Amino acid sequence: MITRSSTLLHCSAPDEPGLPAPGGWQRQLAGAIRDPRELCRRLGLDASLIPGAEAGHSLFEVRVPEAFAARMRHADPDDPLLRQVLPLDAEQTSPEGYVTDPLQEAQHTARRGLIHKYAGRVLLITSPACAINCRYCFRRHFPYQENAPSRSQWDDTLDYLREDATLREAILSGGDPLAASDRQLAWLVERLDAIPHLKRLRLHTRLPVVIPDRVDGPLLEWLTGTRLQKVMVLHINHANEIDEAVAGACARLKQAGVTLLNQSVILKGVNDSVDALEALSERLFEAGVLPYYLHAFDPVSGAAHFDVADARANALVDELRTRLPGFLMPTLVREVPGEASKTPL
Ligand code: SF4
């Protein structure tokens, strides 16, 4: 049971051996690469890529933490991690059918920062910020500023959760919920914990992957302090994203009683091969994470160059099934606006 004392609002910072320095992640976040020229220079890329990178950056800014950049191959524009974050000229073109809100989330915004699409669970936009800006993101045009609740608006959101006894799960999303401070997260989780019909706390996050030091003592303190069952859905698209530091972060989370799942997106030039998908599932399991969803690409404008046709995605998954045990198979799904659940392809 969560402690209802001020300790939650003033997380002490355990300085245990093996844990990252408390708050070190915030310095890494502040120091993330935000300049397309700097990204190209840091990776030793050809200068011819700079104009396209700057054009894409003007539409959706570059943000790449050093801990993630360090896993990329030098001077390789086809590196699967780089491709996820390097802006391209192609982002300026948007073929018909590619839109700014492919999941029509605006229609399901029940309160500022609260999306209620599916029975039994609601999604809370906990932080408008991400630690990394993924070029294919279906929320790359999301109006975060209109959906970033203030403390008083959180009261309204929490009332919504208290009043709907059918809810069993609160999903913290964003942006990236772990971009919020531990003080804010502890405040929120304490209030969710006090809603009797809620059973589960789910976090959708990429931060333990892109800055593994995010899983530090202050985070583990509020995470272990709640009675709610904890599920963390990571977002990893390629096996190369999981280095020893990420595996260490996963181990700390598992030790804190968190069920770890992964969702990825099938992306042209990143993971659209059976070998890449097989390696991803294997590496996830080595790190204690179960593959959960493989999302079909959502047709968001500016990212059409990542699209993989459904027939090809299905063919890849069919072959993947011949190589992996069932528990390492992610489910290939698409989120169809208006449907009561994800739709298997
Ligand atoms: S919401 Fe997730 S996919 Fe989108 S930019 Fe942030 S971390 Fe990347």
TrEMBL record:
Catalysed reactions, as listed in the record? L-lysine = D-beta-lysine
The answer on whether this UniProt entry bears the keyword Nucleotide-binding reads: no
Q: Radical SAM core domain spans which residues?
A: 116-339
Q: Return any one Pfam family short name.
A: Radical_SAM
Mind telling me which InterPro entries this protein's record contains?
Aldolase_TIM, EpmB, Lys_aminomutase/Glu_NH3_mut, rSAM, rSAM_sf
Region annotated Disordered sits at: 1-22
Keywords, alphabetical: 4Fe-4S, Iron, Iron-sulfur, Isomerase, Metal-binding, Pyridoxal phosphate, S-adenosyl-L-methionine
The protein's required cofactors: pyridoxal 5'-phosphate; [4Fe-4S] cluster
- Family annotation (CDD domains): Radical_SAM
Transmembrane segments annotated in the record for this chain: none
Protein name in UniProt: L-lysine 2,3-aminomutase
Family statement drawn from the similarity comment of this UniProt entry: Belongs to the radical SAM superfamily. KamA family.
